[in-house]
Amino acid sequence: MRQSAGEQLLFGFSGRPQQGPRRRRSSTRGRAPRNARPTPRENARQGKLPLARKIDEAARLRLERRIGAHLRGELEVTVTDNRYSIISVKRARGRFEARLHHMFVDAEPRIVRALARYIARNDAEASALINAFIDKHQHKIRHSLPPPRRPPKLSTVGQFFDLQEIFDSLNERYFGGRIQAAITWGRRSNRPARRHRSVKMGSYAIEDRLIRIHSSLDRSFVPRFFLESVVFHEMLHEVHEIPVVNGRHHFHTPAFRAHEAQFEWAEASERWERENLNRLLYF
Q1: What is the predicted pLDDT for the residue at 5?
Q2: What's the pTM?
Q3: Which of 41-50, 157-166, 171-180 comes out lowest in average pLDDT?
């Protein structure tokens, strides 16, 4: 991520349910109303939910109740297997939405209380306890890359630049053809141009091994070497590991930055970016 005073330019990161045999209705005693929503247990019994989902829902509800007992306000917990965002919170008018890694499902009471304090008011002491807990349970985070999913429809040929040609050239010159990611322009907006406070010029989706480049860089005043620097930056994410320090993932390590500095136009790109910041933010 590159920043400048007051502004920032960012580089990233059905089947049908089974039906049982029909039974003759003999009585309505003990039956739920027709409009009653079936419970997860009932759905699972009828084959409408896989067993794993029923277990996940039960664990989610239990964790939600445990944390909610220490909160004032409404709490909604989502349990995830995310490898990069272990905990995230949204706070709004007495309502809290928390996305928590499954490592917290069976956490001891002191960690549950720390989660409640962190969710309620971003408590610093609670944050330190949670970071220590995350470090201790690193083995529960999936570190290996899953097989890439089918990539979305790619758009590489722009009005002024061909991303695939740029990617292939960089791959050969700097990586010996080892980078396997796909590349595409981001979606183009039909709205009138206006000045933005920031722009995420590029991103790398690890799960999809997909590089997206902001379509605002496909403009006549943008030099090829600057676009190459953005693509090169995103390609590096396939090469460098992402260590976790105090519960936080570090995408741009010193090794990453040192490798990035090997790009032949690195200094010229940084200088051009500073001199053309206003033009880059207008799209």
Answers
A1: 35
A2: 0.53
A3: 41-50
The residue extents of the domains of the chain are 44-144, 163-280
Report pLDDT digits (tens) over 232-279.
999 999 999 888 776 677 889 999 999 999 999 999 999 999 999 999
Residue-by-residue DSSP string for the chain? -EEETTEEEEE----PPP----------TTPPPTTPPPPHHHHHHTTSS-HHHHHHHHHHHHHHHHHHTT-SSEEEEEEE--SS-SEEEEEETTEEEEEEEGGGTT--HHHHHHHHHHHHH--HHHHHHHHHHHHHTGGGS--SPPPPPPPPPP--B-SS-BHHHHHHHHHHHHHTT----EEEEPPPP-SPP-B-SEEEEEEEETTTTEEEE-GGG-STTS-HHHHHHHHHHHHHTTTS---EETTEE-SS-HHHHHHHTTSTTHHHHHHHHHHTHHHHTB-
Query: What string of H, E and C letters represents the secondary structure of 197-257?
Result: CEEEEEEEECCCCEEEECHHHCCCCCCHHHHHHHHHHHHHCCCCCCCEECCEECCCCHHHH
Q: Are 64 and 76 in contact (CB under 8 A)?
A: yes
What are the pLDDT digits (tens) for 175-206?
Answer: 999 999 999 999 888 888 888 888 899 999 88
Looking at the domain 163-280, which fold is it?
A: Zincin-like (3.30.2010)
